[in-house]
Amino acid sequence: MMKKSYAKLEPRTQRGMKTKQKLLDAAEIVFGEKGFHQASIVDITQQAKVSMGTFYTYFESKEDIFRELVMSMQKNMRKAIKIGTQGITDRIELEREGFRIFFQFLQKHRYLYRLFRQAEFVDVELHRSYFETFSRGYISGLQDSMEKGEIRAYNPELLAYCFMGIMDYVGMKWVLWEQQEVTDEFIDELVCFIKNGIGKP
Amino acid sequence: MMKKSYAKLEPRTQRGMKTKQKLLDAAEIVFGEKGFHQASIVDITQQAKVSMGTFYTYFESKEDIFRELVMSMQKNMRKAIKIGTQGITDRIELEREGFRIFFQFLQKHRYLYRLFRQAEFVDVELHRSYFETFSRGYISGLQDSMEKGEIRAYNPELLAYCFMGIMDYVGMKWVLWEQQEVTDEFIDELVCFIKNGIGKP
Amino acid sequence: MMKKSYAKLEPRTQRGMKTKQKLLDAAEIVFGEKGFHQASIVDITQQAKVSMGTFYTYFESKEDIFRELVMSMQKNMRKAIKIGTQGITDRIELEREGFRIFFQFLQKHRYLYRLFRQAEFVDVELHRSYFETFSRGYISGLQDSMEKGEIRAYNPELLAYCFMGIMDYVGMKWVLWEQQEVTDEFIDELVCFIKNGIGKP
Amino acid sequence: MMKKSYAKLEPRTQRGMKTKQKLLDAAEIVFGEKGFHQASIVDITQQAKVSMGTFYTYFESKEDIFRELVMSMQKNMRKAIKIGTQGITDRIELEREGFRIFFQFLQKHRYLYRLFRQAEFVDVELHRSYFETFSRGYISGLQDSMEKGEIRAYNPELLAYCFMGIMDYVGMKWVLWEQQEVTDEFIDELVCFIKNGIGKP
DNA sequence: CATGAATGAGGCTTCATTCAT
DNA sequence: GATGAATGAAGCCTCATTCAT
């Protein structure tokens, strides 16, 4: 399926490192704008202002750079959330802050969204593993809170996927489409729903 | 530039109608399994057991059949939900039944999910219009219920997108990935969360 | 190269005759407007308002109808010139009238020009035979006139091809492109050149 | 819709330049022999002994290379005539030399003829512009000669098109079909006709 | 390390022709 | 005679990848 003669190279020089980063940055823009399948390697190398051959010095294939890109963004995002929510003990506040950081991250990396969504059609494993990794932390956090009696008891996995679905759709609608700044009031209302549901008290 | 002489045809005979349907059925499977970009016209015509040329008797392009397919599935799904929830007045029960029908539909049309998600990368307009159409009905329904005081008052648009996100992610996880039958108990728990939230009473 | 299962049919009924003529008329328009290679059988059958299958009742192939069309137009043109110049004995007057009739014919059959020119790229034989037939008569006529001492003596073949080239280019420029009516004065000037040349007396 | 990423390239290296020229040379032969519509890209690349993909490194389409080819031949031909007739002041001699060079050029580029004729069915604009450019120079030259009283006064445009028609048809008949060497005697006779016409003195 | 010309498999699309009704 | 659905060979074009410089 996938031939290769040059092994993927980890850059050994400063210059090489820079070139590789230029390619990754270019890929983020190109894949984000055109989509993985519509984008071509030339699009990326032109955007990065390097020649076609250079691409294959650092990446094995189109799939390869996509994978590396998506994985690094996932890592960054998880890290941002982790750091931003450090020290918050109250579950509700933690969710509130998590949402805020997620939407902020989305605003900064406008293409992240399309990148993640496409992963499903480029590399199923990549897509699944993202959800598994992300949900794992989420689930165990929720479970803790439930055991401590902080929040109502539900199937924590179900809850995690509900929250992720909400983040996804709200992010899509308001950050990606409407390009509105997601205000604190907006997030407050969202958290209010999560906390209280739609049922009358 | 010059008008096409082999225009896309609406079939004029019974036989033609059948052939077109065979192609649509084949496309559902092929697009669902391989994804739009990985699938080729030949994949579809082989699955439908017709020759390649026949495809172009009824469709203008790969995009064309995809669009027709997605639009017809959207219509069917909305219709199924509409019919299934007719006569239900209680909002919570309506949501419960809506979820049930949605998951059922998903189980029957295993590929619907992937089809819808891909629309974003095939035809942005198609994707947007789906969300707009679907959410419009949802929003106005929620607004009614709020005005009647049946449920808590939130931004109905926000609520609609939350619900849609939940349906999407829960469907993805349990119907698509786990391939579990979504039991009534499962839906009850889901609805319980929507009704009461995670906050302690 | 050319398969066939149905032999070309000479229509046996009035209805058949009409259908065949409709196809020929349609072909004149379609080939004339789009050109042989750009035109499709469907273009012709649609223009003729008959079904695709009907075409093959009367013609063996696309080349076949083109050939029949071109040959019949050639015949008509030659006939028109022959009849129109009957009885003219003076060579110069004969040329004058020949030009007039040719341009008139061109005006009536706007597509004839493109049809003839394309013949070269559809069926070399057809093209050659047209020139041979047309020039044969021309040459022998010129030869007669020379022998009678009516006109200067030249290689009659050379003269014939010069005249044909003139007709072709003048027709192209003024009838086809400019769509001007070719006046008698215009033809007179043309004949004057042919008679006297560009040299000062 | 989406800008092409593999844009047609002007070759940046010597090697590239050579390859492009090989393709142009091959196209001259292939288009000349088979005709534009009967020729395929593969025919051209095989003749040029390069791979199919290479074609698209330098040309956008079959039309594109045809256009470039025809335009460059036109330029060369006009240049050859211009250079060859430089310094000739006598109009009749100028025509004589013009004819000679034209037929010589035709003999060298046997396919030029078919190439030019086909232009009409490939790119109408190209065809027209050729005639306009070519005739423009011709017309103004004739006009000058008339004003100087060197030759009889006619509509110079008419005369130019007559001469072009003669060149075309004589070239077709004797260079292309008969493949005879066009002798000086032959041209002398031609020029004699142009000078003196067919009328008796 | 960087370059960009060359490759060719793979996919889309057209349309002349056939044939069952 | 007429119909139009079905066929599939043939051609255009793209672009991921290789490799000589």
Automatic annotation (TrEMBL), chains A, B, C, D:
Alphabetic keyword roster: DNA-binding
The keyword DNA-binding appears for this protein: yes
Full protein name: TetR family transcriptional regulator
Every HTH tetR-type domain range: 17-77
Keyword DNA-binding appears in the UniProt entry: yes
Pfam families for the chain: TetR_N (PF00440)
InterPro entries xrefs: DNA-bd_HTH_TetR-type_CS (IPR023772), Homeodomain-like_sf (IPR009057), HTH-type_Tx_Regulator (IPR050624), HTH_TetR (IPR001647), Tet_transcr_reg_TetR-rel_C_sf (IPR036271)
DNA-binding region location: 40-59
Molecular-function GO term, any one: DNA binding
Classification of source organism: Bacteria, Bacillati, Bacillota, Bacilli, Bacillales
